[in-house]
Amino acid sequence: MEPQLRWTRGSGRGTAQDNSGIRHVFRLFCLAVAAMALLWGTPPAHAQVPEWILRKTLISRTAHRMTFDSSRGVCVLFGGNTSGGYLRDTWEWNGAQWSPRSEVGPTGRAAHSMSFDAIRGVTVLFGGSISGQSAPIHFDDTWEWDGNTWTQRVVTGPPARSGHATVYDTHRGVTLLFGGSVGGSQSQVGDMWKWDGSQWTQIAGPHPPARSGHAMAFDSKRGVAVLFGGRGNSGLLGDTWEWDGTAWAQRATAGPPGAEGTLSMAFDAARNRTVLFCPGPASSGQTWEWDGSSWTLSTSNGPPPQWGNTMAYDSVRNLSVLLGMRSNGVTYLWQWNGTTWQERRLDDPAPRSFHAMAYNPINQETILFGGHTTAPNGETWTRQDAHWTLRSSVGPSARWRHAMAYDIGRGRAVIFGGLNSSLVTLGDTWEWNGSTWTQRQIAGPSPREIHAMAYDAGRGVTVLFGGSNPTGFNGETWEYNGTAWTQRVVAGPSPRWGHAMAYDLSRGVTVLFGGHSASGNAGDTWEWNGATWLQRVTAGPSPRNSHAMCYDAGRSVTVLFGGSTGGGETWEWDGTLWTQRPILGPSPRVSHTMVYDGARGFAVLFGGQVATGNPDSQTWVLGVRCYPNCDQSTGTPLLTANDFQCFLNKYAVGDAYANCDGSTGNPLLTANDFQCFLNKYAVGCQ
């Protein structure tokens, strides 16, 4: 079946109506796809240049909006406001994790409205605002999200506004809109409109008093829209109204306290209750429920007041989902099952430096422990399928400047040493089995910090070198076989701290570079083969400390990034020569960490201290970006028919990704881009 492509060439952004030419191109495109499937099967590998890619995370925000797409079983989130401006990103929550979906569609905004049209299977967005020089700028545009693409519906309708509310009337098949703020003076209005998917129609009064910042939900059991609170022209409101499809009726006068903006409401279809979350009289958030006759305060325990929160009812999992931002600037998601609230922390690990990471190839996950945030940290995080998960806060004491390696033979992550919150240098050994930490009560290296460790897979031992302790620099080599630590009394690198090590799987040696010694920063390269240390070359990265390294098994090179004098440089060691990669990536930093994710073919970098002196929380990956893998899938085969549909969707909305041939003309997107995509698909990915 052909997709309904509602756009034309011209500006490259999809504006006109005649699409016969592009349909012809699409037919040719589909024929080419079929031909490739017959001739080539799975596309072959092809060497490409690696690049740094910043992995996006859900940024903390306020005045965002969310609704539940019942056809696909996901909560859809759009926009909001941050200290850096207004967001235009679309995210989806599947009950376990957030996924970024699009940054093409409505412009950045806050205090807009969103609701899901269950008959047509689209999320409807209207209005919102941004700050202007002297007064807010309101929007009057209507957009629809089908799960892949935002489409602007060019129609006339309600005047521009923000702080309004919409719900989808499942009994009558229309989206209802009420109230909001309009104009530079932010005047409240009390008009009502309905959207049937083709046009907006104003509904004549009488209506509830004018207001903005109110909450609405649709009670599908009784067939009424429920409205509560907001700010009227004379102050805060605490009244409850219902719309039965013909007229408004004021209901209860007793119930939740009057409030605006921080209100959010959803209808719990499993229990036939309208759930309202609002700030309490003090610092607590209150959860109220409306049964159609009266309000009941369910609990004052649960989420604290959230800034500009939004709520949607997940009918697949029978949970009311609340997303808001606390006063500390961190976004939190809470779920209400009708009895208790459960908090789901969404953010990545907090900004930190001097943490440690290792890669577990058995579970195909990156493990992170500790580091320094505003103080030493004792959290254990894992990253799998581009998402971080907080696994434990129980185990080794909070620490930083420690080292970690993954023992593949025994399936254990091993931590040694570090510095605790009392600035005591540690000498303990811990192991993580994937669910719990266990301290090994064994003798070993003396207490130390800023040392380095790597796992020698050929000999089945964890190698430790150097570090700093209360007596100064250390130049010892130790090995841990899972039972005992053994010191290897050998000559090697000078005593140092802040160096980095990685195990070269193809050559069976542990590579060490740099660090800080008694004579200053070092720029030497050493390799440990299990019996001797061999100094290799002196030419390469400048002398530095607090850099990070990992071994890229896909390309058989050791990758180095950053450090005290390295800026934002990326270097690679092939066993003979160091080569600097002229690629842009993370900002300059120190005390970050890197591991190689073998399942996904990426080096993963997290955190570190940046030029401002502050710790960072960005996750970057270094690898070959597979252009034809448009849907960013990770399965086998990597490239499928979904990638063609993804490309078509991006082409339809004028996404810059679809400019495959890199042209700069007008129109920007042409049939050449289709041919370019076919060529890249045929070549495949490494």
Radius of gyration from the CA trace?
29 Å
The helix content is under 10%
Structural category: mainly beta
Count of β-strands: 53
Quote the beta fraction.
35-45%
Q: Mean of the pLDDT scores?
A: 88
Q: Tell me about the largest β-sheet.
A: 5 strands, antiparallel
Poorly predicted residue ranges: 1-22, 33-47
Q: Judging from the principal axes of the Cα atoms, what is the shape? A: elongated
Q: Please give the alpha-carbon distance between the first and last residues.
A: 32 Å
What's the helix count?
3
Please characterize this protein's 3D structure.
By secondary structure, this protein is mostly beta strands. Strands 32, 33, 34, 35 and 36 form a five-stranded antiparallel beta sheet that branches. A four-stranded antiparallel beta sheet has the order 1-53-51-50, with no helix packed on it. The two termini are 32 Å apart. Mean pLDDT is 88; it is low at 1-22 and 33-47.
Which key features would you list for this structure?
686 residues, mainly beta, five-stranded antiparallel sheet, four-stranded antiparallel sheet, 53 strands, elongated, disordered N terminus
Topology, please?
Blueprint: H1 20-39, E1 51-55, E2 65-69, E3 74-82, E4 85-93, E5 98-102, E6 113-117, E7 122-126, E8 129-130, E9 137-138, E10 142-145, E11 150-153, E12 165-169, E13 174-182, E14 187-195, E15 200-203, E16 215-219, E17 224-232, E18 235-243, E19 248-250, E20 264-268, E21 273-279, E22 285-290, E23 295-299, E24 307-314, E25 319-325, E26 331-336, E27 341-345, E28 356-360, E29 365-369, E30 380-384, E31 387-392, E32 399-400, E33 403-407, E34 412-420, E35 425-432, E36 437-440, E37 452-456, E38 461-469, E39 472-480, E40 485-488, E41 500-504, E42 509-517, E43 520-528, E44 533-535, E45 548-552, E46 557-561, E47 570-573, E48 578-581, E49 589-590, E50 593-597, E51 602-606, E52 609-610, E53 619-623, H2 641-652, H3 671-683
Antiparallel strand pairs: 1-53, 2-3, 3-4, 4-5, 6-7, 7-10, 8-9, 10-11, 12-13, 13-14, 14-15, 16-17, 17-18, 18-19, 20-21, 21-22, 22-23, 24-25, 25-26, 26-27, 28-29, 29-30, 30-31, 32-34, 33-34, 34-35, 35-36, 37-38, 38-39, 39-40, 41-42, 42-43, 43-44, 45-46, 46-47, 47-48, 49-52, 50-51, 51-53
Helix pairs in contact: 1-3
